[in-house]
């Protein structure tokens, strides 16, 4: 899709990857509806973008039903006024690196909700007001393709989002709407605590800058790539994990002691 003058609803716009995507999209001539919980943070992002007056901010807690309905209403209003949204990017996300046994029910619900249920609901809403041709792009994770200790909830949610995107894209074949999936590997944002970043460094897990992810998102939008896994060797591990999961399990088993060490440190910090 040509991005010039396209209107894009971007969730998680105040976060590390969201800001980078917003910057790239604005530079490509798109007009943004920036969504996040914090109005000031969204305004601060808007102020940094090319031609700030072309972009709007919308503060909403996407896990709150009323806020989601307000966003639906706003998008419908844009539809009626002819300023239709052409692209939705479901980017807002959270995670907690912890053993399942340590997790509260509320934190599990919150993580599944924002990472999987909310994108499903936003996609469903979008079917009513998204312009044709239109794109829904879901930001997943390498952990949607590889189960990793300490991230069981996150892996489950992102894997669900991958299959959801694939199924909906096929369901909407020939409807004028594409559903795309982009899966970053570890990325240098506040989503990862300093201890998680330290663990990734010690284990040799490579990480990308948010700008690398944003550029890949723009490429996927322009070329309408169905799914994209960012970075070697993660891209390869995702494939190997599908065919020979025992090989990946062996490699993760070698990291197990360090993973447990860091989870225990994070857990004891909280107590
Ligand atoms: N960083 C990584 O290592 C990594 C790797 C793979 C995939 N990803 C995925 O990339 C996406 C962006 O992550 P990031 O690294 O940029 O994280 P981040 O910097 O922590 O940003 C998260 C964004 O989500 C928003 N958000 C959180 N809870 C929300 C809620 N209840 N309602 C509305 N917005 C909410 C935050 O805004 P407010 O707090 O202001 O509401 C913020 O804009 C996520 O889907 C994540 O799973 C990240």
How would you sum up this structure in a few lines?
Keywords: Oxidoreductase. The protein is an alpha/beta fold and 271 residues long. Helix content is 52%, strand content 15%.
Textual characterization of the structure:
The protein is an alpha/beta fold and 271 residues long. It has one domain (7-270): Rossmann fold, CATH 3.40.50. 52% of the residues lie in helices and 15% in strands. The chain has 10 helices and 7 strands. The chain has helices at 16-27, 39-48, 65-80, 105-129, 152-171, 194-203, 210-223, 234-243, 245-253, 256-270; strands spanning 7-11, 31-36, 56-59, 85-90, 130-139, 177-183, 227-229. The chain has a 7-stranded parallel beta sheet, with helices on both faces. Helix 5 links the parallel strand 5 and strand 6 (177-183). The longest helix is centred in the middle third of the chain and has 25 residues, at 105-129. NADP nicotinamide-adenine-dinucleotide phosphate is lined by residues 11-18, 36-38, 41, 61-63, 91-94, 114, 139, 141, 184, 186-187, 189-192.
List strands and helices in order, with pairings.
Blueprint: E1 7-11, H1 16-27, E2 31-36, H2 39-48, E3 56-59, H3 65-80, E4 85-90, H4 105-129, E5 130-139, H5 152-171, E6 177-183, H6 194-203, H7 210-223, E7 227-229, H8 234-243, H9 245-253, H10 256-270
Parallel strand pairs: 1-2, 1-4, 2-3, 4-5, 5-6, 6-7
Helix pairs in contact: 1-7, 3-4, 4-5, 6-10, 8-9
The structure holds NADP nicotinamide-adenine-dinucleotide phosphate (NAP).
